[in-house]
Prior knowledge:
Residues 98-130 are annotated as: Disordered. This protein is mainly alpha-helical and 130 residues long. Helix content is 60%, strand content 8%.
Amino acid sequence: MKSQWMMISMFVFALITAIFAVINVESVQVNFLFAQTSLPLILVILTSTLLGGLIVGLFGVLRYYQLQRKVKQLEKQVKAMSPTSELSDPAVQALEQPAVLSTEPSSSEQEDPQDPEASKDPKDPQDSTS
Protein backbone atom coordinates (compact mmCIF):
# COMPACT_ATOMS: atom_id res chain seq x y z
CA MET A 1 0.00 0.00 0.00
CA LYS A 2 2.87 2.35 0.81
CA SER A 3 4.49 1.75 -2.56
CA GLN A 4 1.21 2.52 -4.33
CA TRP A 5 0.97 5.89 -2.62
CA MET A 6 4.61 6.54 -3.47
CA MET A 7 3.93 5.84 -7.16
CA ILE A 8 0.81 8.02 -7.16
CA SER A 9 2.69 10.91 -5.56
CA MET A 10 5.53 10.54 -8.10
CA PHE A 11 3.06 10.70 -10.99
CA VAL A 12 1.34 13.75 -9.51
CA PHE A 13 4.70 15.48 -9.06
CA ALA A 14 5.72 14.62 -12.63
CA LEU A 15 2.40 15.94 -13.97
CA ILE A 16 2.71 19.21 -12.04
CA THR A 17 6.32 19.63 -13.20
CA ALA A 18 5.37 18.94 -16.84
CA ILE A 19 2.50 21.44 -16.74
CA PHE A 20 4.75 24.04 -15.11
CA ALA A 21 7.46 23.46 -17.73
CA VAL A 22 5.03 23.68 -20.68
CA ILE A 23 3.67 26.98 -19.41
CA ASN A 24 7.19 28.47 -19.21
CA VAL A 25 8.61 28.24 -22.74
CA GLU A 26 10.41 31.60 -22.93
CA SER A 27 14.11 31.72 -23.54
CA VAL A 28 16.23 32.58 -20.49
CA GLN A 29 19.87 33.45 -19.90
CA VAL A 30 21.67 30.64 -18.01
CA ASN A 31 25.02 31.47 -16.40
CA PHE A 32 27.38 28.56 -15.78
CA LEU A 33 30.68 29.16 -14.01
CA PHE A 34 32.58 28.97 -17.28
CA ALA A 35 29.98 30.00 -19.89
CA GLN A 36 26.74 31.83 -20.51
CA THR A 37 23.98 30.67 -22.84
CA SER A 38 20.35 31.22 -23.71
CA LEU A 39 18.04 28.21 -23.29
CA PRO A 40 14.27 27.69 -23.27
CA LEU A 41 13.01 27.67 -19.68
CA ILE A 42 11.21 24.36 -20.31
CA LEU A 43 14.61 22.67 -20.84
CA VAL A 44 16.05 24.25 -17.69
CA ILE A 45 13.07 23.10 -15.59
CA LEU A 46 12.97 19.55 -16.97
CA THR A 47 16.76 19.12 -16.80
CA SER A 48 16.87 20.37 -13.21
CA THR A 49 14.02 18.07 -12.20
CA LEU A 50 15.62 15.09 -13.91
CA LEU A 51 19.04 15.71 -12.34
CA GLY A 52 17.45 16.18 -8.92
CA GLY A 53 15.56 12.90 -9.25
CA LEU A 54 18.70 11.06 -10.36
CA ILE A 55 20.70 12.41 -7.41
CA VAL A 56 17.98 11.45 -4.90
CA GLY A 57 17.70 8.00 -6.52
CA LEU A 58 21.47 7.53 -6.32
CA PHE A 59 21.46 8.32 -2.60
CA GLY A 60 18.58 5.89 -2.13
CA VAL A 61 20.43 3.10 -3.92
CA LEU A 62 23.59 3.77 -1.90
CA ARG A 63 21.61 3.64 1.35
CA TYR A 64 19.96 0.39 0.24
CA TYR A 65 23.33 -1.27 -0.39
CA GLN A 66 24.70 -0.01 2.93
CA LEU A 67 21.74 -1.53 4.75
CA GLN A 68 22.06 -4.82 2.85
CA ARG A 69 25.74 -5.02 3.79
CA LYS A 70 24.86 -4.34 7.46
CA VAL A 71 22.18 -7.05 7.41
CA LYS A 72 24.65 -9.59 6.00
CA GLN A 73 27.22 -8.61 8.62
CA LEU A 74 24.70 -9.03 11.44
CA GLU A 75 23.53 -12.38 10.04
CA LYS A 76 27.15 -13.59 10.08
CA GLN A 77 27.47 -12.48 13.70
CA VAL A 78 24.31 -14.39 14.64
CA LYS A 79 25.58 -17.54 12.91
CA ALA A 80 28.97 -17.18 14.61
CA MET A 81 27.41 -17.21 18.07
CA SER A 82 27.61 -20.69 19.50
CA PRO A 83 24.32 -22.12 20.75
CA THR A 84 26.04 -23.79 23.74
CA SER A 85 27.13 -20.45 25.18
CA GLU A 86 23.57 -19.19 24.92
CA LEU A 87 22.12 -22.22 26.67
CA SER A 88 24.45 -21.80 29.65
CA ASP A 89 22.56 -18.67 30.60
CA PRO A 90 19.70 -19.61 32.99
CA ALA A 91 17.43 -16.89 31.59
CA VAL A 92 17.81 -18.28 28.07
CA GLN A 93 17.21 -21.82 29.35
CA ALA A 94 14.01 -20.70 31.05
CA LEU A 95 12.80 -19.17 27.81
CA GLU A 96 13.74 -22.29 25.84
CA GLN A 97 11.81 -24.68 28.11
CA PRO A 98 8.09 -24.99 27.46
CA ALA A 99 5.74 -24.00 30.24
CA VAL A 100 4.27 -26.96 32.14
CA LEU A 101 0.74 -26.60 33.38
CA SER A 102 -0.07 -28.45 36.57
CA THR A 103 -3.50 -29.74 37.48
CA GLU A 104 -2.60 -29.76 41.19
CA PRO A 105 -3.62 -26.74 43.25
CA SER A 106 -0.84 -24.29 43.86
CA SER A 107 0.96 -24.20 47.20
CA SER A 108 -0.78 -20.96 48.14
CA GLU A 109 -4.15 -22.67 47.73
CA GLN A 110 -3.10 -25.63 49.90
CA GLU A 111 -1.77 -23.61 52.82
CA ASP A 112 -4.03 -22.48 55.58
CA PRO A 113 -2.96 -19.05 56.88
CA GLN A 114 -4.21 -20.04 60.36
CA ASP A 115 -2.08 -23.20 60.51
CA PRO A 116 1.66 -22.49 61.04
CA GLU A 117 2.53 -26.15 60.36
CA ALA A 118 0.99 -25.99 56.88
CA SER A 119 3.55 -23.42 55.70
CA LYS A 120 6.46 -25.78 56.44
CA ASP A 121 7.79 -27.94 53.65
CA PRO A 122 7.60 -31.64 54.65
CA LYS A 123 10.71 -32.41 52.57
CA ASP A 124 12.80 -29.65 54.17
CA PRO A 125 15.83 -31.30 55.88
CA GLN A 126 16.34 -28.30 58.20
CA ASP A 127 12.89 -28.71 59.67
CA SER A 128 13.41 -31.17 62.54
CA THR A 129 10.21 -30.53 64.46
CA SER A 130 8.59 -33.78 63.37
